[in-house]
Structure formats: structure tokens, C-alpha cells
Amino acid sequence: MENKLCIENVSKVFLEKNATVTALQNTSFCVAESEFVTILGPSGCGKSTILRIIAGLEEASSGRVLLDGKEIKEPGKDRGMVFQAYTLFPWLTVEENIAFGLNVAGRSRSDQQDAVKFYIERIGLKGFEKAYPRKLSGGMKQRVAIARALANDPEVLLMDEPFGALDAQTRSVMQELLLSVWDESHKTILFVTHDVEEAVFIGDTIYVMTARPGKIKARIAVDLPTKRTYDLKLTEQFLTIKRDVLELIREEAWKAANANLPEG
Amino acid sequence: MILLATQKWATAKAEIARPLYWSLAAAAFVLLLLVWSVLTYGGHVPPLFLPAPDEIVRAAGLLFGEFDLMQDIYASVLRVTSGFLLAAVIGVPLGIMMGSLKVCEAFFEPFLGFIRYMPASAFIPLFILWLGIGETEKIAVIFFGTFFQMTLMVMDVTKNVSQELIDTSYTLGVSKRSVFWRIILPASLPGIVDTLRITFGWAWTYLVVAEIVAASSGLGYMIMQSQRFLKTSHIIVGILVIGVIGIIIDLLFKWLYGRLFPWMGKGGAA
Ligand SMILES: Nc1ncnc2c1ncn2[C@@H]1O[C@H](COP(=O)(O)OP(=O)(O)OP(=O)(O)O)[C@@H](O)[C@H]1O
Ligand SMILES: [Mg+2]
To answer: Would you list the domain boundaries of chain A?
Structure first.
């Protein structure tokens, strides 16, 4: 498979008043077309930072990001993003939120309506087209946020702990929903999470990052059937992968915790 | 105490029924009227200091009938609205620019912050010197009294627009230029309308100050004249009229708010 997205030697140093924070150090990896990548790492290792750099919302201190061989310089609609915080535009209805990107691009009304109809059905929010975001539950908001990003038809979808604020049941439903939507579009997805089970369940490939300064510690190809339903989580195969990943992440979590102790 | 704490109305921020709300609001007015009546009809206060309610009603009839109070109201409303609109037309766009572009903030914020502490009323002698004693001077006082606060408040509202919404819009294809229309303006509009509502109230207080000096019409002028002739009842009518106009405008703004921003909860901030 061809490489869709390449992160090459990306470092990021934040300058604070009297200190510098190295969030990322020489991080490199490539993502293939239609690959579903999940990224795991201890808190503060730079997961959000790397997504923001790919999105063009943050500049890399060194290194570069290539999308289809072209270097990324600024944000663009070819890279959609879903954040952990609820970011629906509160002054727009559900359907206006979903059609937002198409509206910005100046696409026809009927194009916008088609997209709305398609995604409203996929995310199971029929009857909520005219509702304002404040009336929606957290899970519903994130479904609309995903639909809004997908309706814009990006080359790559970046997701930063999109289900992080949801309860376990809702999260599990959302995972299957995301997989079923992905099944149709086969977008290239980078999905950041701190939930190991989630990473194994939805990803084709898992990248585990080291404690700060973050870089890639391990790449795990998830050898599970492409069609995934919740009962998969109980199989021996699944649990073996989960255990391996847990082991990797535990080391880093301890490193991250110790780094914060006064003695170092 | 225990009983009190178990009552729903004693729970912080809990909603109460509409009828209860309005009954309580009415009760406050009734109470005022009651205390007033006891003081005046009971002969506890001489009429020169505080006339009885029926005296006020009679004075109101006289003022509206023979003294053409409508003319004064009209003159005052025109002044307040002119000064206020002028302040809004310049202050709102400027505030938005200051809230979104750091260069604008750096240039204007310290400067406006400096002038804001200068009392508008102290400028009246200067305004009279510069602009004479006509309408321009009155409008200048109202403008001066509202413009600086309004602009700084609009700036704060705009600054508080969530960076996450702006970032999200960039990833959906919004350009650096259109982010003003697409995100910053709609997100800060409710706060701006609220700012206008609050500063309009201030504009009224500056009106009276402006009309007390060198005016020949308006509610402030009428109140000043009445004081000269010891017409206490006329002063009170003037003050009540200003209060009523104020509450009508406040309700108008609230109604407008509800119509413009159905996406905000009931009368509440986001
Ligand atoms: N704008 C910024 N200014 C200064 N430091 C920052 C900034 N953004 C992030 N950092 C620092 O960079 C490091 C990585 O942050 P990042 O948000 O990418 O971590 P993360 O892996 O997403 O963590 P979490 O799992 O908690 O979301 C952290 O130490 C953080 O404090
Ligand atoms: Mg993060």
C-alpha cells in the first residue's frame, strides 16, 4: 500500500517563560492509504501535539509532515479533525453543523442536503436535524462532530480522544459506529486514545509513544478480522494483543510518573 | 432551618414556577407603594420632602397634559439614542478588532483604558467650550460616557471566543479572513447584544448629567427646573418616567436577545 501521510523527524519545543518543554523528539512514521492508526501514550507525551502539527494548527520546530508527498504548511480541509472537547458550533443546528464544510466550500444547497441526509442516517440522529447542540447529549455531539468532519470528505481524519469524555457504554457504541462508518468510506484515520482496549479494538495499527519527550516506541500491527463487533473484545486473540500493548504502555506511564518526582 | 433547606426554592439556582416569580416581582412594587403611603398619608414626612402617591398621579397628569412632558421625553430619547448609537457604531467593530487581532489590542487597549477612568461629567465644561451648548455637546457627553467601556467590554467578549471553535473551523476549510464572519462574529454576538443592553442603561445616567447643565429641554432639564421651584412631585414623576423607559428598553433588548439567539438556553449565557 502507498503512504498517504508521512511524519518525518518531527520535533516540537514549546517555549515557556523561563523553560523550554520538548514535547516531541524526532518522531517519524508513515500511514498508508485507508489505514486506521491508533496512537497510545502516557499523558503529556505529545499525542495532541502531533495531531495538531499534522492538522497545521501548530508548527513543527523541526522536521516535516507530508500528505500525498506534499509538505503541510497550514490547516486545510484535506485534514479533518475531531477534538475531545465538544466543538460543535452552538449557533448552528445539527444539519447546519454537518453541512458547515460544504457551505464554506460554496457547494450547492442540494449537495449539502444530500450530505446531511446521508450522515444523519449513519449516525442515527433522525429527527434531530433542526436541534441546536445544547440539546444534545455528549455522545450525540461527538457523532455530529464526526459526521461534520466526514461530510467535508477529508483525505485524512484526525481524532484526538474523541470519546474521552463519554461513559463506557456510550463509548463502546461509538466505537462500533465509527467502524461502521469507516467501513464505507475507508478514510485514512489517526486516532489518539489513552484507552488500550479502544486502541486495539478499532485500529489496524497501533503506535505506542514514549513518555515525554515523545517519539514512537513501538508499532503493533493488529492481527484481527476487519469486521469487528464488541464480542471480539472477549476473544483470546484480542486479549493477547491487549496484554502486549498494556505491558509497553505501563513502562512509559511509570517513566512519565517518575519524571515528575522531585528527585528525578 | 432544616425546613428551609429542604424547600426547593431554597436550593441554589433551582428554577421556580413562573407565577411565583411574577408574584414576587409585583410584591416588591406593592411593598414600596405601601411604605410610601404609610410615610406620607400617616403624616410622618412633610409633603415638600415626599408628596403622597395621589399627588404624584396628579402631577403626572399635569405634566403630560399642560406641560407637554412628551416633548421632553422625545428630546431625551433622541439624545440618548444618538449618543449611544454613535458609540455602538464605532465601538462594536473596534472592540471586535481589538479582541481578535493583537496589534489592534496593543494600539488601542491601554489608550482606551486610560481615558475610561476620566469622568464624562468632568468633561462637560470642556465640551461646552469646544462644542457650544447645543445638541452636539449633549450627545458628546453620552458618547464619552459609554464608548470606552462598551468597546473594552466587546473586546473581552470577542477574546473569550473559544480557540477550539476557531481551530475546528480551520480544519473545515475556513480561511484566516473569513473566520471573522464564520466564527468570531456569531460566537460573540450574544455577548455583544448583552453589552449593548448594559451600556444603554449607563447612557441614560449620563443623559441626566448632560441635561442638568445648559439645556432647555429634556427630562433632566425638567427635573432641574422643578427643583428650582420646589416641585418635588414633578421631580419624582421625572425620575419615574426615566425608570419606566429604562425597563421598557431592557425588556426590548431581552426580547430581541431571545429572538436573535434561539440557540442559547432560555435567557442564559452559554
Ligand atoms: N501551547 C503549549 N505551550 C506550552 N507547552 C505545551 C503546549 N501544548 C502542549 N504543551 C506541553 O507539551 C507536552 C505534550 O502535550 P500534549 O497535549 O501533546 O500531550 P498529550 O499526549 O496529548 O497528553 P494527554 O494524554 O494528557 O492529552 C506537555 O508537556 C504539555 O505541557
Ligand atoms: Mg491530548
So the answer is: 23-78+155-234+253-264, 89-153
Check pLDDT > 80 for residue A259.
Answer: no
Q: Which three cell numbers stand for residue A99?
A: 453541512
CA-CA distance, B245 to A8, in Å (whole number)?
66
C-alpha B30 chain-centroid distance = 24
Question: In this structure, which ligand is nearest to the CA of A20?
Answer: 1
- Residue B183: list chain A partners with CB under 8 A: 89
- The mean pLDDT value of chain A amounts to 90
For B168-199, letters b (16+ CB in 10 Å) and e give bbbbbbbeeeebbebbbbbbbbbbbbbbbbeb
CB-based contact A61:A107 (threshold 8 Å): no
A239 within 8 A of A196, measured Cβ to Cβ: no
Rounded CA separation A150/B125 (Å): 63
Residue nearest to atom 30 of ligand 1 (CA): A44
Q: Which ipTM score applies to this complex?
A: 0.90
Instruction: For residue A1, name the pLDDT band (cuts at 50, 70, 90).
Output: low
Decide if A97 contacts A51 (C-beta within 8 A).
no
Q: Would you say the C-alpha torsion B12, B13, B14, B15 has a positive or negative sign?
A: positive
CATH code given to domain B69-262 = 1.10.3720.10
**Residue A152: which of B172, B178, B270 has the nearest Cβ?**
B172
A164 touches chain B (CB under 8 A): no
A194 C-beta closer than 6 A to ligand 1? yes
Residue of A nearest to B190 (CA): A91
Inter-chain residue contact B186 with A89, CB threshold 8 Å: yes
Residues of chain A above pLDDT 90, percent = 60
CATH among 3.90.1150.10, 3.40.50.300, 3.40.50.1980, 3.30.559.70 for A23-78+155-234+253-264: 3.40.50.300
Q: Indicate whether residue A165 lines ligand 1 (CB < 6 A).
A: no
Number of residues assigned to chain A: 264
- Residue A264 clears pLDDT 50, i.e. is over it: no
**Which regions of chain B are under pLDDT 50?**
267-270
CA B16 to chain centre: 27
**What pLDDT shows up at residue B3?**
62
pLDDT value, residue A39: 95
Chain A residues inside the 8 Å CB shell of B169: 89, 100, 104
User: Which among B172, B180, B266 is the top mutation candidate for probing chain A, defined by the most A β-carbons within 10 Å of its own β-carbon?
Assistant: B172
**In this complex, is the C-beta atom of A85 within 8 Å of any C-beta atom belonging to chain B?**
yes
More confident residue, A35 or B6: A35
